[in-house]
Amino acid sequence: MSMLEVNSVKKIYTTRFGGNPVQALSNVSFQVEEGEYVAIMGESGSGKTTLLNILAALDKPTSGSVRLDSKELSKIKDSDIAAFRRDYLGFVFQDFNLLDTFSLEDNIYLPLVLSGKSPDEMKKRLEPIAQQLGITSLLKKYPYEVSGGQKQRAAVARALITSPRLILADEPTGALDSKATDELLKLFSSINQRGQTILMVTHSVKAASHAGRVLFIKDGEVYHQLYRGNSTDNELYQKISDTLTMLMTGGEHR
Amino acid sequence: MKKGLYRTLAWTGIVKNKKLYLPYMLTCIGTVMMCYIISFLSTSETFGNISGGTTMQGFLQMGVGVMAVFSVIFLFYTNSFLIRRRKKEFGLYNILGLGKKHLAVVLFWETLIIAAITIFAGLFFGILLSKFAELCMLKILHSEAVFEITVGLNSIANTVTLFAAIFLLIYLNTLRQIHLTNPIQLLHSENAGEKPPKANWLIALVGAIILAGAYYMAVSIEDPITAMLLFFVAVVMVVIATYLLFIAGSVTICRILQKNKRYYYKTNHFVSVSSMMYRMKRNGAGLASICILCTMVLVMVSSTVCLYFGVEDSLRQRYPRNINIDASASSVEMLYGEQTEKTIEIVDETVQENSTEVQNTLIYRTAAFGGIIDNNRIEVDSSIYENRMDLMGDIWQIFIVPLSDYNELMGKDETLNENEAIIYTTKDIKYEEDTIQVGENESYKIKKHAEDFVDNGIDSMQVFPTMYIFVEDLSDFVQPLENYKLGDDEISLVSYHWFYGFDLPCDDDTQITIQEQLTERFSESEENTDEFSYFHIITDGVAKERAGFYGMYGGLFFLGVLLGIVFTFAAVLIIYYKQICEGYEDQSRFEIMQKVGMTKKEIKKSINSQILTVFFMPLITSGVHLAFAFPLIRKLLLLFGIMDAKFLITVTFCCYLVFAVFYMIVYRVTSRSYFSIVSGMRDENE
Q: Inter-chain contact A82–B277, Cβ cutoff 8 Å?
């Protein structure tokens, strides 16, 4: 059984003042196996963010089901949802979403504090992660004192520290320069090699080319998917580019 | 066309930011209104003709000054909130091609529009409400009201000038701020990265020490004169300490909490402590201002209320009877001589002519002088203590009263052996020695401390405490003192008085007539006296002085309440702006916390606890300030003849309670708008 199962998810937004309903997702189905590194690609407005919000249990689908470890997301009680998110999911955002009132260390601790862990245990957990991400010397600094790449690494550490089942990344390279992007993608690959499942939403070909599988979304549907197979990053990059060109020129569904 | 554009930009700028501008404009209108009303009342001719009215207007003149200074500070403060929030908009205009010169024009229009609307509206409401205020004031003075609205043209001119100047200053200040920043800074000024606040131990410590000093001073001061002299020192110390503690002390406490890992890394404390630290750094000064305003309002209102409602007590102390006759005589013998009988005869005649009667008489004799207390001795040589400010607190008024008068007045049957005395002291000051020696006299043993004695106008008029020494024989006691002179003059130190007071069961007008007749007749009978043998009579009456008292105490009361209202609204507005600003700042934080896995309930709880702390800290601190100021206020009110401590406690407590309830309401209203800002954003994103 797959770790994450998304079955015919549909999402329709109705605007507050009764305007025309907007269909963000029409019919999305896919599975993610444990230890996979999946990238979801699509243009702006294709429904990527909506999908991610639904996967993160921040939003509920109009119809269809999302199961994580065969737990139906929409069946989780509202009161448990935050705890579920904390324990099962780790988030990495485009704009880092670090709290500026906390030092990096405290930002990383935040989910652990929320689940009531002791200071000693938090410290034990942080040390190896910080080392892996190369932010040990930055821990006492505040977000405004460090660069974007460093902020994103702190955000990754925050996502990892709860040892979540799944990491959800929303355009993680969107606000980074190319050097920081390379570093972050390398980091993601190495995390994935240690067995961490990652689901990344992006429209950067470069970011997607590091993934093991790439899903393409268009008009609220999964339109196409590419497996890395034995390709190198560069070969995958080429394949993705070709697919995107085809999608844009309006090629037919295969 | 071009001008029209600027005007339109200015107008839309105001309308779009109405959440910020509306309270600002209301404040402006409120301050304009208050300024006009106070200025109008202080110059209105209606009061010139009423007894007590001019006294009251004197106090209101002071109020005009206070209001003017307050308006400048306060409008500047609220305006700084506006600018801070609007810098982004200005930056955008700047980037879109509006030069700083053009921005200046837009801002000029904006200021002009706001100034025009608020000054006009303020004057309008001011004129409407000034009649109401006038009626209140007449009621306080116990006077008849005339029902016609008058407009103080002078006051209008003054108010308009004052506020035009203030708005001009505000405009220039805004220009200065915009001139100093470049467009990028303008655009990002709202979310500029902020350094984590440093705990400034030294400042926090200094603040704590100053506050402790001020509190100690307030509690330890015993005599009213020192209280009066040091009151303002204490106030300044408390103000400084409050600012230091709110700004540095609170951050320091948060830092200490953060160091304690077991405490800090708890769901309840983690977010609260760290964001409190930022909140306090940014709002420390604002909160300290709120706290000081609250304390000011409470002290002012409770003491003036006390004064006003204690005015009859105060009158009674100053004038123990309806009519008080104070005769100063040239010798002790005269106090027992025929002049006293003659005076009583005149009184009886006059009172009978007015077909009423003398009641509740009060007669006693006394030898009065001033001296410096030095352990168990009273120094009476005035050359020693002349021009010595440091000895001010040791000066006493001494009354030597024969024991027979004491026994008769108080219905006692005390006896004294040789060199024994009974003493009684006023103004809450204790004399703790066993003996007392006056000048070079023999030392007297203090047999007991009397529990009470009759009120005395001189005592209540003076700031100095009074000591009554009751002795068997007045003339024996004072004889050695007769050679002392007062300073270089040839006036003898000791003066002899015969007090005769009585109540009259008739209305104030008759009392005033009787008093006037008495004064006339006494001066006739006094003609054949000379420098060495005199019996000089002064007649005072409550009825004649009442209006003056009401004018003074009522004026203070009225001013206290008016300024109390103004300061309260100032505090409310600061609170409102704080909440709004923090709401915008917390929006994003709120969102992140939710994404990271905090439940809405947890967030709400944490935010609620922060707001509660931030909100009620000033109220609680001002309560503590008030509690410590209480002994000081009591001492000061003693000088005004308000002796009733229980009354003062009740009034102060009620004021605090009313204020707290009002504060709570403000909290409910403003925190609602805070939550709507914070969660409103979230809804849009979902």
A: no
Task: Please answer yes or no on whether A145 and B265 come within 8 Å at the CB atom.
Answer: no
What does the block give as tokens for A33? 């196996």
B339 and B473 share one domain: yes
According to the model, what pLDDT value does residue B686 have? 34
Residues 6+ apart with CB under 8 A from A171: A93, A94, A201, A202, A203, A204
Domain range enclosing B521 = 322-539
Q: Counting beta carbons within 10 angstroms of the beta carbon of residue B499, is it exposed (0 to 12), middle (13 to 18) or buried (19 or more)? A: buried
**Domain boundary residue among B509, B539, B569?**
B539
Query: What is the rounded distance in angstroms from the CA atom of residue A40 to the CA atom of residue A203?
Result: 8
Which chain B residues are Cβ-neighbours of A56 within 8 angstroms? Answer: 595
DSSP state letters, B245-299: IIIIIHHHHHHHHHH-HHHHTSHHHHHHHHHHHHHHHHHHHHHHHHHHHHHHHHH
Q: Is the ipTM of this complex over 0.85?
A: no
Cα separation, B104 vs B102, in Å, equals 5
Secondary structure (3-state) at B557: helix
Residue with tokens 């303002």: B232
Which residue in B has a C-alpha nearest to residue A108's C-alpha?
Answer: B596
Q: State pLDDT tens for residues B517-537.
A: 878 877 777 766 665 677 777
Percent of all residues in chain B with a pLDDT value above 70, rounded to a whole number: 90
Q: What's the pTM value of the predicted model, to 2 decimals?
A: 0.73
Which of B196, B595, B602 minimises the CB distance to A142? B196
Residue ending a domain, among B169, B191, B213, is: B191
Q: pLDDT tens-digit profile of B552-585?
A: 788 888 888 888 888 888 888 788 877 777 777 7
Number of domains, chain B: 3
Instruction: Return phi, psi of residue B220, to 5°.
Output: -90, -20
Q: Residue ranges of the alpha helices (H) in A45-177? A: 48-55, 78-88, 104-114, 119-133, 148-160
Residues B627 and B641 in one domain: yes
Q: How confident is the model at residue B306 (pLDDT cuts 50, 70, 90)?
A: confident
Which of B194, B592, B598 has the CB atom closest to A114's CB atom? B598
Q: Which residues of chain A have pLDDT under 50?
A: 254
Around B339, how many Cα atoms within 13 Å sit in the side-chain half-sphere? 28
Please give, rounded to a whole number of angstroms, the shortest distance from the CA of A86 to a CA of chain B: 5
Are residues B441 and B407 both part of a single domain?
yes
